Amino acid sequence: MLRRLDDGALGTLLARAEAALDRTLPIDEQGRQALFAMADGDGRYLITLAEQLAQLKEKGPVPPQRLAALLQKRAPLYDKAQEAHYNLISALHKSLRGSDVDAALYYFARMLDGGEDPKYIARRLVRFAVEDIGMADPNALTQTLAAWDTYDRLGSPEGELAIAQAVIYLGTAPKSNAGYVAFGAAKRSAKEHGSLAPPMHILNAPTKLMKNVGYGKGYAYDHDAEEGFSGQDYWPEEMEAQAFYEPTDRGFEARVKERLDYWNKRREQLQQSEHDAG
């Protein structure tokens, strides 16, 4: 939890903000106190107010009453630690999941207008890309990471456009949570089955003793096999093969499903041939 800043610390922060903006804000001492009161100990919000005030292009000291009206108009009520914060990020996430690009852009703009840290939104978009799109469009992850990196390089407001582009990409992309579901199932299976050893034939044998006791014996090097696929069994001997990942028929994942179906069929054929030969 962030520490609440007193007026002295806020004053120091405001001076640094003016230096970074390379201009003195159009406020007198009363105006500074009004800014401190509006920030209420939140240093990040004070910086947001300073940036907004600098954009107003006011020439003379702005009276405290007018200052409050101008900044409140530009910064709607939005408590980043309370309900509005969670409501809007939830609305953005669910609008993207429902492929409503315009609604997603609206909530994105609402969050920015309320003073939300764009990097927080960028992080959530990365999460969305892997949780709700996944292999249906693997490029979604690339897009969100690129948007985050672009914002880091450009800052506000130019970098916000890159995040907006990522919002549009995610909203229009095909959706799949198959990877998310598969990973959850794999974690549950790992916990359920405990520390089972992999089969001997896929264990490395860095020492002569390990080789003598059977480590690596019978391993089929897939690149030497027909089609580059041996069809070997890689599961622990005490455990039947599991099926965690069930790809959808949406987007790129439809092609992944075709590949997976092909390899599963070939594995069954090769293992059956090996069984018949034995």
Task: Describe this protein with a few key phrases.
single chain, 278 residues, mainly alpha, 12 helices, 62% helix
Terminal Cα separation, in Å? Answer: 64 Å
Largest sheet: none
Query: What is the radius of gyration computed over CA atoms, rounded to a whole number of angstroms?
Result: 28 Å
The percent range for strand residues is: under 5%
Binned, the helix content reads 55-70%
Mean pLDDT: 89
Low-confidence spans: pLDDT under 50, at least 5 residues?
none
Write a short abstract of this structure.
The protein has 278 residues and is an all-alpha fold. It contains 12 helices and no strands. The longest helix has 25 residues, at 253-277.
Protein described:
By secondary structure, the chain is an all-alpha fold. The chain has helices spanning 7-21, 29-39, 43-55, 64-74, 83-97, 101-113, 118-133, 139-154, 158-172, 178-193, 208-212, 253-277. The longest helix has 25 residues, at 253-277.
Strand-helix topology:
Elements: H1 7-21, H2 29-39, H3 43-55, H4 64-74, H5 83-97, H6 101-113, H7 118-133, H8 139-154, H9 158-172, H10 178-193, H11 208-212, H12 253-277
Helix pairs in contact: 1-3, 2-3, 5-6, 5-7, 6-9, 7-8, 7-9, 8-9
